[in-house]
Amino acid sequence: MNTTTKRLLMLLPTLLAFTLGLFLYQGIGQDPNKMESSLIGLPLPKFNAQTLVSPSKNVTQADMLGQPALVNVWATWCPTCRAEHEFLLTIAKQENIRIYGVNYHDQRPAAQQWLQDLGDPYVFSVFDPKGVLGINLGVVGAPETYLIDAQGVVIDKLTGELNERTWPLLRSQYLTLLQETN
Q1: For the structural domain made of 48-181, what CATH number should be given?
Q2: Widest pairwise Cα distance in the chain
Q3: Number of Cα atoms under 13 Å in the Cβ half of residue 69
Q4: What is the pLDDT of residues 35-74, one digit of tens each?
Q5: Which of 42, 77, 104, 140 registers the highest number of CB atoms within 10 A of its CB?
C-alpha cells in the first residue's frame, strides 16, 4: 500500500464520524410528535362510513364542516390513546373543543364499551375497522390528531399523545380559526 492510500484509509473513520454527527445534529431540538402530513393545506379525504355508536347512521366529511375541529384517530388497543383520553374529555367539556373521532382498526363492541366506561369526548366517531379512512388520512399509528378549519381543510397534524404539553400550539391555531369563523 502506498502512502496516499494509507492516509485516505486513516481519514475514512474521521469522515464517517463527521457525517454521522452532522446527521444526528440535524435532529436535535425537533419535536418527535411533529410529523408533516401531505394533507396539510388540503381538504379532508372524502368518505362515507358508519358511526361507531350507531351502525345504521352514515356520516361523511361534510358532517365535520362548519366550525374548526380536531379529528382524533384512536383505538382501544392503543395504550397512548387511553393515556390521552382524559385530556380529550377535559378540552371537549371545559374548552368546548369540537372533536371528531376515527376509531381505527378496532372492534365495534370493544370501542363502544370504551366510550361507555371512559366517557365520549367526540361529536361522533367514524368506525374504520379496516383502516380505509386512516390510510387516506396518512395515519402512521394511533393516536394522531388533525386540526381542520371550518371548510374541512387540514391545518396541522399531531402524531402521538395530545396532552398539556402538546396542546398549546394546536389550541392557539384552533382559537385563531374559531375567531376567523365567527
Answers
A1: 3.40.30.10
A2: 80
A3: 24
A4: 456 799 999 999 999 999 999 999 999 999 999 999 999 9
A5: 104
Task: Give the ranges where the chain is alpha helix by DSSP (H).
Answer: 3-27, 79-94, 108-118, 132-137, 167-181
pTM of the model: 0.81
Q: What average pLDDT does range 29-36 have in this prediction? A: 44
Using DSSP's 3-state secondary structure scheme, residue 73 falls into strand
**If DSSP states are collapsed to H, E and C, what string results for 138-176?**
CCCCCCEEEEECCCCEEEEEEECCCCCCCHHHHHHHHHH
The residue among 44, 41, 72 whose CA lies nearest residue 163 is 72
Q: What is the distance between the alpha carbons of residues 26 and 72, in angstroms, rounded to a whole number?
A: 30
Residue 133 burial (C-beta neighbours within 10 Å; 0-12, 13-18, 19+): buried
Residue 128 φ/ψ, nearest 5 degrees: -125, 65
CA nearest neighbour of 100 among 121, 71, 73, 120: 71
